[in-house]
Amino acid sequence: MNFSRQRLRRTLIAFSAVGALVATPTAFAWSHLGHWLVGDLAQPLLTPAAQQQVAQLLQGEPVPTLAGVASWADELRGSDSDLARKTSKWHYVDLDPERCDYQPPRDCPGGNCVIAAIDAQRQILADTAQPPEARRDALKFLVHFIGDVHQPLHAGARQMSEGGDDAGGNKYQVSLRTAVAPEGRGARRQVAGGPIPTNLHTVWDYYELESAILSPEKYATQLRQGGMPPVAPEALGSPADWAVESCKGIGAQGLYPRGEDGEWQHKLGGAYLDAKRPYAEARVRLAAARLAAVLNQALK
């Protein structure tokens, strides 16, 4: 798939602007680039049978590949359709990073979270009695949601001292210095390399991967060269396992930055992005490997 850098930039601007401006748990995960990478890395890992069915289901799509449909679920959220409203909470689950335990009645009421959404869409995709349109949408949802659940801040929301949680880092405001062009409202008034007012969720949705300064194709090649994690069917785990794993990474990887004095830090720069990028890339690789395993099982 050939993406021009300019075209990708325009797409990323549209997505990151929302994430930077709206302090809600509905911000986009991984941005367009991250989801594209998950789909592109997963495609070669499909079995011939799964490849064939994916091609059939995606006939008529503008770009009929996993990467090409990876951001469809986010694009859907920009519409005013019934499906957009129904699925708005399917992109995340707010586990407490202090415990990272998943209790469906508390964390996923009515099945409205990313864990239940993956389970439900996997069943629809595997059911050949379902209408082709339903299975096509299920495939597109799976590509996206499996990417979402591997973004740590789509699986955890830190409790705040004043009560409530921080909506997966959306309410954790930061001033970011980076070579990446600033996005969002007022971006044109920002000086390149100067402090960008944003939040920790947007740092992980957009700036973390984008700061590698690579085209999508080159980035995918680099990630493949780093090795794709093997995922045996018996070791695949469940979406709940993946969400808990992502949640635990918030604390284990120090995603909420602290200074030497132990105080929370709200000024970030290239050193933070560079230090955390290997973990972000590992999550993208693992999401791709698990996506392929799920599709291979569902499309036998």
TrEMBL record:
Q: Which Pfam families match?
A: S1-P1_nuclease
Q: Which UniProt keywords apply?
A: Disulfide bond, Endonuclease, Glycoprotein, Hydrolase, Metal-binding, Nuclease
> Would the keyword Cell inner membrane turn up in this protein's UniProt record?
no
Q: Which InterPro entries match?
A: PLipase_C/P1_nuclease_dom_sf, S1/P1nuclease
| UniProt-listed SUPFAM superfamilies | Phospholipase C/P1 nuclease
Task: Write down the superkingdom of origin.
Answer: Bacteria
Q: In its UniProt entry, what is this protein called?
A: S1/P1 nuclease
